[in-house]
Amino acid sequence: MDRLFDVVIVRPPGESYKHCVSTNPEHGSIDVRLTKKQHGEYVKVLKGTRD
């Protein structure tokens, strides 16, 4: 399979992520711990090392 990209730059969400600027009415209920877990899974997918 051909790779779509060789380099991806990502940054894990910080503790202040729940204070992001958003028009989503539920953005105040962001679970930062869950967000960090989801980010970790996203990085695994990008690396092709998903469990």
Your description of this structure?
The mean pLDDT is 85. The protein has one helix at 32-47. It is mainly alpha-helical. It is elongated, with a radius of gyration of 14 Å. It contains 1 helix and no strands.
Question: Brief overview, please?
Answer:
The chain has 51 residues and is mainly alpha-helical. 31% of the residues lie in helices and 0% in strands.
Poorly predicted segments: none
Distance between the termini: 19 Å
- DSSP E strands, number: 0
What is the overall shape? elongated
- Beta-strand content estimate: under 5%
Radius of gyration: 14 Å
Main beta-sheet strand count, sense and barrel state:
none
Give the class from helix and strand content and strand pairing: mainly alpha
Order of helices and strands: H
Q: Quick check: average pLDDT?
A: 85
Oligomer status: single chain
Helical fraction equals 25-40%
Query: What's the helix count?
Result: 1
Write the layout of secondary structure elements.
Layout: H1 32-47
Observed structural traits:
51 residues, mainly alpha, 1 helix, 31% helix, 0% strand
